[in-house]
Amino acid sequence: GNSVTQMEGPVTLSEEAFLTINCTYTATGYPSLFWYVQYPGEGLQLLLKATKADDKGSNKGFEATYRKETTSFHLEKGSVQVSDSAVYFCALSDRGGNNRLAFGKGNQVVVIP
Amino acid sequence: ETGVTQTPRHLVMGMTNKKSLKCEQHLGHNAMYWYKQSAKKPLELMFVYNFKEQTENNSVPSRFSPECPNSSHLFLHLHTLQPEDSALYLCASSQETHYEQYFGPGTRLTVT
């Protein structure tokens, strides 16, 4: 079946540091890939997406590239701000599979001033 | 109003109460979802509705009863809940079930 794996544990880093959150996936068909962000006390917001291999999704300084050869969709940002503190979820949607989103467990990111 | 709205934002109820959560989407989508988000647990999909028809029920206890009167509205009726049902309940919608989902702000439910 479809599944998404995110690196274990929270991520704590200083302002202006480089952020990477790893995401790998397993899918039976041709998935679209997403990153969602959840700020404290809010629902999930779509941050970026990529619908086919080698696509790069980008938004608010965040980027992720759809790598079919490594089945990965790692999220990166070159210089984080305190306002980027949130939980980040990787997800996939597979039209050849069960036609709904599969979410990773999420990573808490804490940016310290 | 735009996007996906949920009411109430916070709810405290006793185990013998009956209450309902409401979700409304203003995006013209055809699919709607209920999720449960508990502390330190993965996001749990509860129900899926596509074109007002329930297409998925992930072994949710019968004390949770969904209702989808039209493609824009989704309810979750609650009765005789347990303290372990305390969580953030999120509603989402999407154009079709394999498209990206848009989430509401959630209802923070506390069962006492």
Task: Based on the model shown, name its key terms.
heterodimer, A: 113 residues, 4-stranded antiparallel sheet, 12 strands, 0% helix, globular, B: 112 residues, 7-stranded mixed sheet, 11 strands
Biggest beta-sheet profile of chain B: 7 strands, mixed
The biggest beta sheet of chain A is recorded as: 6 strands, mixed
Helix content of chain B: under 10%
Q: What best-fitting shape of chain A do the alpha-carbon axes yield?
A: globular
The average pLDDT score of chain A comes to: 92
Percentage of residues in DSSP E strands of chain B: over 45%
Radius of gyration from the alpha-carbon trace of chain B, in angstroms:
13 Å
Work out the oligomeric state of the chains in this entry: heterodimer
Total beta strands of chain A: 12
Number of helices of chain A: 0
Please state the average pLDDT score of chain B: 92
Q: Could you tell me the number of beta strands of chain B?
A: 11
Q: Please state the structural category of chain B.
A: mainly beta
- Which of globular, elongated, flat, extended, rod-shaped describes the shape of chain B? globular
Strand content of chain A: over 45%
Stretches of chain A where pLDDT falls below 50 for ≥5 residues?
A: none
